Amino acid sequence: MSTALPGTLYVVGVPIGNLEDITLRALRVLRAVPVIACEDTRRTGKLLSLLDVPRPALVSLHDHNEAQRVEPLLARLEAGESVALVSDAGTPAISDPGFRLVRAATEAGLPVVPIPGPSAVITALCAAGLPTDQFRFVGFVPSKAEGRRKALEALSEARETLVFYESPHRVQAFLEAAREVLGGDRPAVVARELTKRFEEFRRGTLGSLAADSGVIRGEVVLLVGGAPEVAPTEDDLEAVVGRLLAAGLSPSRAAKEAAELTGARKKAAYALALALSEGEPPS
Ligand code: SAM
């Protein structure tokens, strides 16, 4: 028998294309709750029937009515009903409605339980082949050229892998703007139709993908490698020596490595290293 904790808001991830990606836990919760808050009651109704989950009360909660729907849903939670929040696809509140409801529930001291499932950002990132140790999920950038350019400019120094959502008919414009603002050499990946029959990863650079993106159909995640580390120059000698000393290197080792890294003369690097290690301001 399925059970759900009373008065609990469950944030339930659902597939982004492949029905088999529903988790056992998500199925159990969806079968147990008396209420599901969802973006589109028809789409969620269809999903439930494909998953063979009996249909509970469905309450629509989308970008245009979330503010009004929060209070009645909170009242149901406070009365002890459990509620599942789902979106059309993927994880609720990730470039989808739900954040306001989650915030209101946490502010009211009500339990909020995540039931993790697929999300396009992680699905794309884990197989794209770009660094995953640090990434920035940007989601959708503004759709108009000016706003898009500004958003990209603000990201131009970021070192981490950038992950964008974009609608397929804007992919070409996005790639061209990104090539201009971030540079054509950056590695980039167009991840399309993830988990579906025509799943595809197009890998290249912003330059090559912008020149050859062709017609893009279906859903798309765009990933762009972070800003390359700028090689230090002679001007950075003092900072580099300081960092190496702080990392525990002896003045002579720090000087040698700093000279190699920056192209400065060893003698100058050594004088700096000695001065810094003795706490004297460099001359
Ligand atoms: N909440 C969802 C999630 O957790 O990924 C995202 C919803 S957002 C409104 C929809 C965007 O997610 C699409 O425009 C696309 O950029 C991306 N997306 C969703 N499903 C996808 C898929 N199967 N393949 C590629 N991108 C997908």
Description:
By secondary structure, this protein is of the alpha/beta class. It has three domains: 9-118, Cobalt-precorrin-4 Transmethylase, domain 1 (3-Layer(aba) Sandwich); 133-224, 2-Layer Sandwich (Methyltransferase, Cobalt-precorrin-4 Transmethylase, Domain 2), CATH 3.30.950.10; 234-277. It has helices at 24-32, 41-50, 66-78, 99-107, 120-128, 145-154, 171-182, 206-211, 237-246, 251-262, 266-277; strands at 9-12, 35-38, 57-60, 83-85, 112-115, 135-140, 161-166, 187-192, 200-205, 220-224. Helix 9 (237-246) crosses helix 11 and helix 10 (251-262) crosses helix 11 (266-277). The longest helix is centred in the N-terminal third of the chain and has 13 residues, at 66-78. It is elongated and about 80 Å long. The protein starts with 8 loop residues before the first strand and ends in a 6-residue tail after the last helix. It binds S-adenosylmethionine. S-adenosylmethionine (SAM) binds next to helix 5, strand 7 and strand 10. S-adenosylmethionine binds next to helix 5, strand 7 and strand 10.
Secondary-structure blueprint of this entry?
Elements: E1 9-12, H1 24-32, E2 35-38, H2 41-50, E3 57-60, H3 66-78, E4 83-85, H4 99-107, E5 112-115, H5 120-128, E6 135-140, H6 145-154, E7 161-166, H7 171-182, E8 187-192, E9 200-205, H8 206-211, E10 220-224, H9 237-246, H10 251-262, H11 266-277
Parallel strand pairs: 1-4, 1-5, 2-3, 2-4, 6-7
Antiparallel strand pairs: 7-10, 8-9, 8-10
